[in-house]
Amino acid sequence: MAIVAPSILSADFSKLGEAIAFLDKAAVDFIHIDVMDGKYVPNLTFGPPVIKAIRPFTSIPFDVHLMIDKPEDSVDDYIAAGADRITFHIDATIHAHRLIHKIKEAGVKAGVSLNPSQNPESIRYLLDDVDLVLLMSVNPGFGGQSFIPSTIEKAKQLRTMTDRKDLEIMVDGGINETTGAQMVKAGCDSLVAGSYIFKQDDPMVAIEALRRL
Ligand code: DX5
Ligand code: ZN
């Protein structure tokens, strides 16, 4: 059974409350929230006030994916808004180790993310510290892009780099039943999916298909 984290980036933003209510009813493992600052990535989404506004509508953990420069400057706001997990990009900050520990000291799980261009070796020194590694299987910034197949080898490589069975490997971008199956086989625990879920006539069917992987 794969861990499933639907990304609300592909939901209808004018009906965000309905999307949260649906995911709550579907009892998904995490709700993946894509925060973009228009600098680290060429797109702008939501920040702490929106996360705070939707927080009371579900008790499902919020998996907050920060695609922002200098996450250390605003991480406290995301913690206060109700993030249960915070993942930042390795090249968005200079002192990644310090930031991981700051997040964990606040009682929040900490993750680090790699873009398709980045080598797992760049985070080897963090593998004993992080709760999860988020492998981007598209260039971050937009939903609905195609899966980059080299992510499969990257997941396998990462698994060989640590003995930690509790280190979660999550994949994000272009995930559907086929690519999700490839990533689970390669050693991934959890799947982020946006368009594959929200563009279905019945999103529940897609959630169940991913869960079964
Ligand atoms: C992309 C985001 C993803 C996005 C995935 O930058 O980090 O979480 O929502 O969307 P799909 O599943 O449509 O590729
Ligand atoms: Zn994401």
Descriptive overview:
- This protein is an alpha/beta fold and about 210 residues long.
- The chain has eight helices and eight strands; from the N terminus they run βαβαβαβαββαβαβαα.
- An eight-stranded parallel β-sheet has the order 1-8-7-6-5-4-3-2.
- The chain starts with a strand and ends with a helix.
- The mean pLDDT is about 100.
- Zinc ion (ZN) binds next to β2.
- D-xylitol-5-phosphate binds next to β2, β8 and α7.
Secondary-structure blueprint of this entry?
Elements: E1 3-6, H1 16-26, E2 31-36, H2 48-54, E3 62-67, H3 75-81, E4 85-89, H4 96-105, E5 109-114, E6 132-136, H5 151-160, E7 168-172, H6 177-185, E8 190-193, H7 195-198, H8 203-211
Helix pairs in contact: 2-3
Bound molecules: D-xylitol-5-phosphate and zinc ion.
The site of zinc ion (ZN) has 6 residues, from strand 2.
Summarize the structure.
The chain is an alpha/beta fold and 213 residues long. 31% of the residues lie in helices and 19% in strands.
Q: Span from first to last CA?
A: 6 Å
Oligomer: single chain
Summarize the main sheet.
Answer: 8 strands, parallel
How many distinct beta strands? 8
Q: Averaged pLDDT, please?
A: 98
Instruction: List the total number of helices.
Output: 8
Strand order across the biggest sheet?
1-8-7-6-5-4-3-2
Strand content: 15-25%
Cofactors and ligands present?
D-xylitol-5-phosphate, zinc ion
